[in-house]
Amino acid sequence: LDGNSAGVDIGDGATANPGNGGGLHISAAGVVTVRESTVDGNTAANEGGGLWGSGAGLLTIERSTISNNSAPDGGGLFLQAGASGMIELTNSTVSNNSATNGGGVQVEGGWLTALNATIAANSASNMGGGINDAGGAINLANTIVADNSAPTGPDVSGTIDLSLSSLVEDASGASGIMDGNNGNIVGQDPMLMPLADNGGPTLTHMPAPNSPVVDAGDTGAASLLETDQRGEGFPRFVDGDGNGTDVVDIGAVELQNGEGQIVVNTFQDLPLDPNDGFLTLREAIIRANNTPGADTINLNAGTYTLSISGDGENMAQTGDLDITDELTITGEGVTISANNLGDRVFDVRPDASLTLDGLTITGGMATNGGGIRNEGTLVVMGSVLTNNTATNDGGAIWNASSGSLTIRNTTIVNNSAVDGAGVYTESAGDVRTFTVDLSTLNAAFGSNATGTATITLDTSGMTGPNSGTATIRVEMNVTGLQDLSGISGAVHVAHIHGQFAGNANQPLAAQGDGPFFDGEGG
User: Fold this and answer.
1) Which residue, of 17, 18, 129, 323, has the greatest Cβ tally within 10 A?
2) Domain assignment of residue 42, given as a range
3) How far apart are CA 154 and CA 141, in angstroms?
């Protein structure tokens, strides 16, 4: 299967009996190559949501992405017990797959060899969020296994037989790899951006410019690779750290010179002047808005205070920071404050995308969305939103009916509003979906939010044959959620005048003007 730079999609497949290989089932001997393709959205009743292999064959996956597949074992990939075959995963990404065991990959026999691969953001409800070794052999070279989740072996469960210049963020369930041995990196965050279109025919995870994977790979292992996963125009060997030597990065994506890098060199919100030698956060965002494609702003630790006040939508010239293109802002120990602004902090406009990673957003004030107003795509991860105020809805975040919202590993606390002191989202027809994962929501203010976190879905504008029914889906790990009642994982959903679909160990009950669940499930 060869995408020939246009991309081939294997998607929306499902298997019943015997239930192996939702997207592609390979058995016996032979050679199968999947190149420049996407295997997405498949399910299997038993093994290998995306791809399933057995026998003595060779399955080669090159410059491809395996994403959003699911199965009880091996959400993305499965190699059968007793098999003598091999899966070669080269310049490819395995992301956002799920399973009971082996969210990304399950190896029960044969060999898995991963070269310049990225295995990230997969999940397993039992063991091996990224990779689960259940009897096969695992060889890693220049490969990232990170940001996966599982109770046992979040990134890898089992034995890594051979590893060279690879990064495993959480090796608590793995043996055979040590930090510093053979160029391996263990226990560090690769600073990956969300799965996105970073060029080429498939979606990829871009590393931040200051990621430890940049120029950290083994050149010899990758000597036959001319490009990264994205293909032509994205060479595999680049001088990413500026020392004059082209070195391969770890992972499927090679950070190109200057790719996505915008450097802010002042904490002040100075008047806009391209010749003063300073690049403020506001100027950096204006530059990113005016540069088509994805950009990244990496902030040094400290407090960035917004102070140039103004009204209306003026492309971030004054007031809040308007986002009109695709932007990621990252930092550690970074606070962005609007205490002196009299406006919110960020306004994500329609068709725009903003990812915030590792930031504290505070001091914002607006009618709707005291901290952030979102009409595009908003991802907030590893961040804190606190002390923001809305005089109407959404103290921390106001999410429009057109908006897409994801919150991961984030604390939302001490914000205030009339409705939705933490998060408020408008109706969007009959179904509105957003994700809250591993986050702490302690929104203690607001007439409908006192003492609890709020996620509010306004259904007043719903029309059509199902206008009396709305569904809110909240995906969460309850061990990471708290509320002021002290009940782990408690969520109160207000203002849904219709049907609430939930999954809890406690039965649904009615309270006030909307159903809610309050228990250990979710």
Assistant:
1) 129
2) 8-186
3) 19
